[in-house]
């Protein structure tokens, strides 16, 4: 997917040392090399596809599990454990950029520390040894509880509430201390999304209601657009935000009711007849298997200014919320499997 008005800059410096040691496919020594950590995840897959589509990079796609040969040209797959400095250092040798999306997002506190904190320390060390640029995809959840209504980065304070968000904030701190760049998307949707849209659908089905008539405004971004942003930064654009932490969402917020209407139109989602106040929904959060934080994220204003990012890229993105044909098919397949019988949402 091509988004309008990308800047045109010279390619980053090219390093060829260590590239030919990867025997699966032959890299082009005239192109920069990008290592994508977490390449098999929701964000990592989209980023890898966009980088490959551009044809301007050699790619090293890192997976935690054993990786076989890549079917793509100028692309090699490697197995990397963020807890194993040797595998990480070997994968990073000779690369120009490391895009770090190998985040743990579960509930195991020890794994949060191992992957998000200690693992990121290892990534930083590998980047310094390789003299590579660092780009980390974090989350707006590091800001803690809202409501948020269009604040810019200079006004917002990092104040994570959960252990998971705290571990992501600690990862950010390490990246920024090493001169890396951090992107903070809020709610990301598209192929592979198992959190945002599924949680919204689950919340409304279990409440049999929308919250405050879906009036909450939220910052969203499609996974395709987020991947485009990453590719722009790796291409040398957006230099004004190098070494900063910036919000990464589409410029205008979107109302939850607008998202629900799109789900009704595109996925045949049946809008629940009821309506609850946010306070009433929070009282029922435990009964419906959701945390109060999840209900707040999808029930009250949670939108942030991303003006700094879009100014740096000199670009205006696509509409605020729109499912691609691939995303529509992915959600339909996902919900059919989850609902075990193809019943309507």
Describe the structure in your own words.
The structure is a single chain. With 345 residues, the protein is of the alpha/beta class. It contains eleven helices and 15 strands. The strands form five sheets. The protein has a seven-stranded parallel beta sheet with strand order 3-2-1-4-5-7-12, with helices on both faces. The protein has a two-stranded parallel sheet with strand order 6-15. It starts with 32 loop residues before the first strand and ends in a 7-residue tail after the last helix.
Write the layout of secondary structure elements.
Blueprint: E1 33-37, H1 42-54, E2 58-63, E3 75-79, H2 85-92, E4 97-100, H3 109-130, E5 133-137, E6 148-151, H4 163-177, E7 181-184, E8 187-189, H5 196-207, E9 209-211, E10 217-218, E11 220-222, H6 223-234, E12 245-247, E13 254-255, H7 256-267, E14 274-276, H8 278-283, H9 292-299, E15 302-304, H10 307-313, H11 325-338
Parallel strand pairs: 1-2, 1-4, 2-3, 4-5, 5-7, 6-15, 7-12, 8-11, 9-14
Antiparallel strand pairs: 10-13
Helix pairs in contact: 1-6, 2-3, 3-4
């Amino acid at each position: 997917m091509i988004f309008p008005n990308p800047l045109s800059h010279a390619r980053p410096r090219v390093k060829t040392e260590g590239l030919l040691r990867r025997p699966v496919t032959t890299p082009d020594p005239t192109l920069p090399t990008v290592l994508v950590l977490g390449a098999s995840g929701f964000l990592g897959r989209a980023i890898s596809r966009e980088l490959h589509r551009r044809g301007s990079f050699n790619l090293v796609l890192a997976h935690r599990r054993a990786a076989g040969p890549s079917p793509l040209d100028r692309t090699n797959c490697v197995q990397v454990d963020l807890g194993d400095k040797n595998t990480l250092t070997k994968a990073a040798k000779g690369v120009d950029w490391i895009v770090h999306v190998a985040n743990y997002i579960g509930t195991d506190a020890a794994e949060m520390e191992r992957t998000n904190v200690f693992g990121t320390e290892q990534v930083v060390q590998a980047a310094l040894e390789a003299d590579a640029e660092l780009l980390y995809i974090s989350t707006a959840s590091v800001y803690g509880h809202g409501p948020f209504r269009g604040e810019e980065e200079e006004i917002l304070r990092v104040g994570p509430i959960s252990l998971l968000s705290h571990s992501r904030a600690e990862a950010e701190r390490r990246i920024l201390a090493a001169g890396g760049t951090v992107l903070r998307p809020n709610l990301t949707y598209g192929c592979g999304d198992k959190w945002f849209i599924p949680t919204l659908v689950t919340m409304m089905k279990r409440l049999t209601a929308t919250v405050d008539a879906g009036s909450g405004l939220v910052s969203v971004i499609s996974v395709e657009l987020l991947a485009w942003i990453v590719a722009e930064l790796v291409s040398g654009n957006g230099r004004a935000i190098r070494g900063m932490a910036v919000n990464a969402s589409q410029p205008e917020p979107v109302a939850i009711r607008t998202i629900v209407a799109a789900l009704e139109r595109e996925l045949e989602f049946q809008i629940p007849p009821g309506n609850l106040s946010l306070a009433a929904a929070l009282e029922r959060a435990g009964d419906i298997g959701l945390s109060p934080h999840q209900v707040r994220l999808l029930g009250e204003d949670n939108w942030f200014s991303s003006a700094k990012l879009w100014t740096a890229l000199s670009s205006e993105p696509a509409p605020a919320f729109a499912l691609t044909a691939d995303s529509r098919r992915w959600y339909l397949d996902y919900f059919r499997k989850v609902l075990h019988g193809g019943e309507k949402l």
